[in-house]
Design brief:
With 418 residues, the protein is α/β, with parallel strands linked by helices. The chain has 19 helices and 15 strands. Helix 2 packs antiparallel against helix 16, helix 12 packs across helix 19 and helix 18 packs antiparallel against helix 19. It is globular, with a radius of gyration of 23 Å. The structure holds beta-D-glucopyranose. The site of beta-D-glucopyranose has 11 residues, from loops.
Length: 418
């Protein structure tokens, strides 16, 4: 074999090798809003798993907790005819994207992987558009949590509250002792997050459903809702001047550092404690938000997938869909993220105490009737109604509007958004 021929043969092999690799490999461009320490660590797991299978991950992170900014960017990309491969989209919005006719059908993966058997039916139904899977669920977050620094409570001689009345007693002591009682993130979605916890606490699950799921005008302006608004405003003197505009993870950091005593936030906050090496029970306490121990405000993250023309991109997309529900990803992602697996039958051993309590509460409240979808996190109503509620809540919290006026306005704005 002369050397020229050898080189030619080698090149043929190389080319064949390259073709073989690229036949396996495709790119996924993934739009999400997981940019905090704990969130970034969690999503990195998916990237790694995809890369192990030879695919490429193009990160399309749009910062902004709660995802409002990400949704705006997503719409403009789709309108421009250039959707990403996958995007973090939740709840009833999945149906709206289905109506646009731009989503990829994932039934082939779903059948092969037995998604109908692996997922709770209530979750699976939300992921389907006209009976076809168009989205993959990732996790289950519980919204109604209180994250507390026990050291601050101890120094202030205050008790951990289980009711909003006890909260007020504790908050007074904490403030007097020179600490910030509540780490508050002054952004509309965060204010709406606390608001819905108070709706649950003051009104119970039936009232929650009538107002934040059914959007019933009479209930929205009822005396119970007036009480909810009063309770929300009661918290304000126990927050600090830096609250307006503060990101949720910076608020969590205040609790971690012992500057503030507590934060009311979904369990992605636990991801920040975990990323900082803090242990539940010792360094921080996780309790249901006051008055909500028998309720579970749920929030399921999911990815919708957009139709792809390129066969390699299709393969990568299918791989992503498959990997999300694999036990490996469900375990590592949810341990880091603070959520619990959405896949049924996962081993409990890797999870910490708050996660185990969340798992028990998820099952228990499904039976007792205390399991309700989060309005603030897009699980309960269409975006127009959610937008109207969030606007009224934030306008009320940041002005001297009376609680009565806020409840009336809530009813009329929600009617107008229907
Ligand atoms: C999402 C979480 C996320 C949180 C803060 C929620 O709406 O469901 O996954 O961690 O927003 O950005």
């Amino acid at each position: 074999m002369n050397s020229r021929f050898f080189t030619q043969v080698l090149m043929v092999f190389l080319a064949a090798g390259l073709i073989a690799t690229s036949a396996l490999a495709g790119e996924v461009e993934v739009l999400h809003w997981w940019t905090s320490g704990g969130e970034a660590k969690s999503v990195a797991v998916l990237k790694e798993l995809l890369e192990k299978e030879g695919h490429t991950w193009k990160d399309f992170a749009v910062a902004g907790g709660g995802g409002d900014a990400a949704m705006t960017v997503l719409k403009s990309r789709v309108v421009a005819g250039n959707p990403p491969t996958a995007a973090q989209v939740k709840g009833p919005q999945i149906q709206l994207w289905g109506d646009e006719g731009v989503l990829a059908k994932l039934d082939e993966v779903a059948r092969a992987e037995k998604w109908d058997e692996l997922l709770p039916k209530v979750v699976a139904d939300v992921m389907k558009y006209e009976d076809s899977y168009v989205a993959v669920p990732v996790n289950v977050h519980r919204i109604n949590w209180m994250w507390a620094n026990p050291e601050v409570f101890r120094k202030a001689g205050a008790e951990l509250p289980t009711t909003w009345e006890q909260f007020e007693v504790a908050a007074k002591k904490i403030k007097k002792a020179g600490f910030i009682p509540v780490a508050w993130g002054g952004q509309p979605w965060q204010e709406a997050t606390v608001f819905e916890m108070i709706v649950a606490a003051v009104g119970g699950p039936d009232f929650y459903r009538r107002t934040l799921v059914d959007a019933d005008a009479k209930a929205l302006k009822s005396p119970t809702m007036v009480k909810v608004f009063e309770m929300l405003k009661m918290i304000k003197p126990y927050t600090d001047k830096g609250a307006p505009g503060r990101d949720w993870n910076l608020a969590t950091a205040m609790v971690i550092k012992g500057e503030a005593a507590m934060q009311f936030m979904g369990d992605w906050a636990k991801g920040e404690f975990t990323a900082a090496g803090k242990k539940p029970g010792a360094d921080y306490v996780a309790m249901p938000a006051p008055g909500t121990s028998d309720q579970f405000l749920f929030n399921v993250d999911s990815f919708i997938m957009f139709e792809q023309k390129d066969p390699e991109a299709q393969k990568a997309q299918k791989a992503m869909a498959r990997l999300i529900l694999q036990p490996e990803f469900q375990k590592v992602f949810n341990v880091n993220k603070g959520s619990i697996p959405v896949r049924l039958g996962m081993p409990r051993a890797p999870f910490d105490d708050p996660a185990l309590r969340s798992m028990n509460a998820f099952v228990g409240t499904a039976v007792s009737g205390g399991l309700v979808p989060s309005m603030a996190h897009e699980m309960a109503v269409f975006p127009a109604i959610r937008g109207a509620i969030v606007d009224v809540v934030t306008n009320f919290y940041n002005s001297d509007m009376s609680a009565k006026k806020a409840a009336d306005r809530l009813a009329s704005e929600v009617e107008a958004a229907k």
